[in-house]
Here is the input.
Amino acid sequence: MITLYYARGTAALAPHILLEDAGATYDARLVDFSTSEQQSPGFLTINPKGRVPALITAEGTLTETPAILAYIAQLHPDANLAPADPFGFAQAQAFNLYLAATVHVNHAHKQRGGRWTDDETAQEKMREKVPANMTDCARVIEQNYLKGPWVMGQTYSMCDAYLFVITRWMKVDGVNLDDFPAITDHFTAMQERTSVQKIMQLHT
Here is the structure.
């Protein structure tokens, strides 16, 4: 048994979907951000960073979305959720790390500007840049990463669950998805998946 700690509106949605895709046996526990549960002593023993997702395994705790996605995919190889060859796996990791290190950070500037500066004026400037920065990221994904119909081409993978999360953020960050038909088609296809429909009931 593994346990996923998640919160609504966070990147934890991606591993939650992937656990369903994998047919994994798992427990999911909601962390209530509205009461700052992520900063409680109990949760900080699970993840000292005070963030989700966190995945409890028999071997220890994993944090960071790309690491958790890769672990789930490799733990369930028969589900074919990550490329088996080293180069293909590295390509999938490159995409997920781009989402984590660049796109997620751009999104965070909308509400988490205090991570970078205490200057309210600077934080407002960060918020103003979010639509443009997220649109630039959408363009990079559309033109260079999304092979179609899935991120890695014809085969659904761990990358698709993560892109679904990012696309949801783009919609509220001011990105005009009409300009990105491949991302829009991907988002529609994801919404039609049984795993997504099931897990979204817990994330809305």
Summary: The longest strand covers residues 2-6. Strands lie at 2-6, 26-30, 54-57, 60-63. The mean pLDDT is 97.
